[in-house]
Design goal:
The complex is a heterodimer of chains A (334) and B (251). Chain A is mostly helical and 334 residues long. Chain A has helices at residues 11-18, 28-39, 44-66, 75-91, 97-119, 124-144, 146-149, 174-195, 198-208, 220-246, 256-269, 276-294, 299-313, 317-333; strands at 155-156, 248-249. Chain B is of the alpha/beta class and 251 residues long. In chain B, helix 3 (97-108) crosses helix 4 and helix 3 (97-108) runs parallel beside helix 5. Chain B is globular. Classes of the chains: A mainly alpha (334), B alpha/beta (251).
C-alpha cells in the first residue's frame, strides 16, 4: 500500500471536487426543448406552459428537495411574482418584460425572506399549515382589492416586446416559448450553481440532520430563510413569466391547487435532483393534457392512479426509477 | 489565578419539579483531560446541553475564557470554540464520510455562506477534511456513505466532525457508547491522540477508558457535583463507590 502524494488525489476528494462538473447527458433536455420548437410548432402555447411549470417546480426543488422545507404554499410566491409584474405594467406603465422579471424576483424574494424568517421556526405539519395559510392569505388579499387585481376574473396585461423586437402574439406562441426557454435556462444555471456550492451543501446537511447543524456552527434559521427566499424569488420569476406569456393574471395564481400541482410534479419527477422538475412537469402536463382530451369528465382518475403507484413503489419519482435501472444495468455489465 | 478556559457558576436547570442540574460549579483548563461520571439520570447530558447552548439554564452562568456566554446560541458557541459529539450518532447519513467532515470545516472557515463557487473548488476545505480523516485512520472510508459504515467507525466520524471545528473545548458524550468491544480500541486510540492543547471533557460509562484518559474526574449525582478529584482519589472514595462504582461492578 502506498500513501497518496496529496489528499486531493484520494478518490473521495476527487469525487467531491468534480461533483459540480457538467455531465455528458446534461445538454440533452435543452436540445430536446429546442427540437420541440421545430417539431411541434402547433403546441408552442402548451410548451410554454410546461416550461413555466418546470421553472416553478425547480424553485420548489431548492426549498423542498435540497433544504427539506415542507411547504404547501409555494403558489404564494408564484402569485406574488405574477402580480408584481402585472401591477407594475398596469399601473406604473412599466412594460419591459425582462426588468419586470427582476422586479418580480425581488418582490417574491423579500416576501419569502420575511415569511420564512417567521414560519421556518416551525417544522412538519405546522409548517405545512402555515405556508398553506400564507398563500391563502395572499389570495384573499388579492380578492379584497378586486378593483385593482381583477380577482377571479383577472386582468389582461399589455407587455412590451422582448428586447424591443419580439412581440408576444396571443395566437402564435413562438416568442413566448423561446423567451420562457431562455429565462428557464438562466434560472437553471443559477439554481444549479447554488445547489453545488458550499451553501447548497449546508442545505443538504440541514435536510439530512437539522439537529446536527447548530453543533457545527450553522445559523440554521438564517440559512433556511435565505434558501427559502431564493426559492421564492425563482417561483416569482415563474409566476411573472406565466403572466407575461399568457398576458393575463388572476387570483388563481395564488391557489392551493397550484401549490399542490407543483408538489405533485416534483414528486412525480423526483425531488432533490434538479432534473426531476423537467421530467415531472412534462409527464404531468402531457398526461393531464391528453387524459383530459380522451376522458373529459374522469381524467383526474388516471393522474390519481399514477400518483398512488409512484407513492407506493417509486418514492424517488421517475428519475429515481431511471437511476435504479441504470445502476442495475451497470451492475450487470461490471 | 489565571482565568479558566471554561467555567460554570451555580449552573442550574429545572424540568418542572425535577432539578436536572443543581448549582454546578465546574472549571476546565486548556489541555485538561477531564471525565464526568455518574449513574444514569444524573444529569450528565443535561450538563453538556447547558454548556453547548442546547438548553438554557434556569439560573447560573457559563463562561468561556472569562466571557459570559450564557445567552449565546449553539452556533455562536461553536464559533467561539466549543465543540461536542453526541451520545447517539447525529451524522448526515446519506452523505459520504468526507462530505460529513466538509460540512464542519466549510462552516468554520466561512465557506458555507458562499453560493456561486462550487463546493469542489474549495480544495482548502477538502484538503483539511482529508487530513482529519487520515489522522483518525478513516481515509479508506472517505468515499463511503455513513449508512455503509460499522457503528464504531461512525463514532469516529462524530469525532472527526468535532475536530473539524478546531475547538478549544471538546465535549465527548459517551464516545464509545454502542461500540462493540472488538472495535472499542479504535475509539480509545482516537481519544488518546486528541490534540494536547484542547480542553477535553468526556462522559463515559466505560471505566477503563475513564481511568486511562482522565487527569481529574467529576462525579455527578442527581444533578449536583458529588465528588471531584484525581482518578486515584475517586477510586478510593467510599461514598463514590457506594453510589456509583459499586453499582457498576455489580452489573
Amino acid at each position: 500500500m502506498s500513501a497518496p502524494a496529496s489528499p486531493l488525489t484520494h478518490p473521495a476528494a476527487l469525487a467531491l471536487a468534480r461533483r459540480h462538473r457538467v455531465r455528458i447527458w446534461e445538454p440533452l433536455p435543452w436540445l430536446v426543448a429546442i427540437a420541440a420548437y421545430f417539431v411541434f410548432p402547433s403546441y408552442l402555447t402548451f410548451g410554454t406552459e410546461i416550461l413555466v411549470m418546470v421553472l416553478f417546480a425547480l424553485s420548489l426543488d431548492l426549498a423542498l428537495g435540497y433544504a427539506g422545507i415542507i411547504t404547501l404554499g409555494h403558489a404564494a410566491f408564484f402569485g406574488a411574482g405574477a402580480y408584481a409584474a402585472g401591477m407594475l405594467s398596469l399601473y406604473a406603465g412599466w412594460n419591459e418584460p425582462i426588468s419586470l422579471l427582476l422586479a418580480a424576483a425581488l418582490v417574491a424574494g423579500i416576501l419569502g425572506l420575511l415569511s420564512g424568517w417567521v414560519l421556518l421556526r416551525t417544522h412538519g405539519l405546522t409548517l405545512l399549515m402555515l405556508t398553506l395559510s400564507f398563500a391563502a392569505l395572499l389570495e384573499e388579499l388579492c380578492n379584497q382589492f378586486i378593483e385593482y387585481t381583477g380577482g377571479f376574473d383577472g386582468k389582461n396585461l399589455d407587455i412590451a416586446p422582448v428586447l424591443g423586437a419580439f412581440e408576444f402574439n396571443p395566437l402564435y406562441s413562438n416568442t413566448q416559448y423561446l423567451y420562457a426557454l431562455a429565462v428557464l435556462f438562466v434560472m437553471f444555471v443559477l439554481v444549479r450553481s447554488i445547489v453545488y456550492s458550499p451553501f447548497g451543501h449546508s442545505l443538504t446537511g440541514i435536510r439530512e440532520n437539522i439537529l446536527r447543524m447548530p453543533a457545527v456552527g450553522t445559523p440554521v434559521q438564517w440559512r433556511l430563510a435565505m434558501a427559502y427566499s431564493i426559492s421564492a424569488a425563482v417561483a416569482g420569476v415563474a409566476g411573472a413569466l406565466s403572466a407575461q406569456t399568457t398576458l393575463f393574471v388572476n387570483q388563481t395564481f395564488f391557489n392551493l391547487e397550484k401549490s399542490a400541482t407543483v408538489i405533485i410534479i416534483l414528486i412525480l419527477g423526483g425531488y432533490g435532483r434538479l432534473y426531476g422538475a423537467f421530467i415531472g412537469a412534462i409527464a404531468y402536463m402531457a398526461l393531464a393534457h391528453f387524459l383530459s382530451k380522451a376522458y373529459p369528465t374522469a381524467w383526474q382518475l388516471g393522474l390519481g392512479l399514477l400518483l398512488i403507484v409512484i407513492a407506493l413503489f417509486a418514492r424517488n419519482g421517475i428519475l429515481g426509477i431511471g437511476a435504479r435501472m441504470l445502476r442495475r444495468l451497470g451492475g450487470r455489465a461490471a | 489565578m489565571a482565568t479558566p478556559l471554561l467555567e460554570t457558576r451555580a449552573l442550574s436547570r429545572n424540568f418542572g419539579a425535577l432539578a436536572a442540574a443543581r448549582e454546578i460549579a465546574f472549571t476546565l483548563e486548556a489541555g485538561a483531560r477531564r471525565a464526568l461520571i455518574g449513574p444514569n439520570g444524573a444529569g450528565k447530558t443535561t450538563f453538556i446541553n447547558l454548556l453547548t447552548g442546547v438548553l438554557r439554564p434556569s439560573f447560573g452562568s457559563v463562561l468561556l475564557k472569562g466571557r459570559d456566554i450564557t445567552r449565546f446560541s449553539q452556533a455562536e458557541r461553536v464559533k467561539l470554540g466549543i465543540a461536542r459529539t453526541f451520545q447517539i450518532n447525529r451524522l448526515f447519513r446519506g452523505l459520504s464520510v468526507l462530505e460529513n467532515v466538509y460540512m464542519a470545516v466549510s462552516e468554520r472557515v466561512g465557506a458555507a455562506r458562499s453560493m456561486f463557487l462550487p463546493a469542489g473548488r474549495r480544495t482548502d476545505v477538502i484538503e483539511e477534511s482529508m487530513h482529519l480523516l487520515e489522522a483518525l485512520k478513516l481515509e479508506n472510508d472517505a468515499r463511503h456513505r455513513i449508512s455503509e459504515l460499522p457503528y464504531g467507525r461512525q463514532r469516529l466520524v462524530e469525532i472527526a466532525i468535532a475536530l473539524g471545528l478546531k475547538p478549544e473545548v471538546l465535549l465527548l458524550d459517551e464516545p464509545a457508547a454502542g461500540v462493540p468491544s472488538a472495535e472499542s480500541h479504535i475509539i480509545l486510540d482516537a481519544v488518546a491522540a486528541l490534540p494536547a492543547e484542547i480542553g477535553v471533557l468526556i462522559i463515559e460509562h466505560d471505566m477503563d477508558l475513564v481511568f486511562r484518559f482522565a487527569q481529574r474526574i467529576t462525579v455527578l449525582v442527581s444533578g449536583a457535583v458529588f465528588a471531584e478529584g484525581t482518578p486515584k482519589e475517586i477510586a478510593a472514595n467510599p461514598d463514590v463507590r457506594a453510589v456509583y462504582l459499586g453499582q457498576a461492578t455489580r452489573e
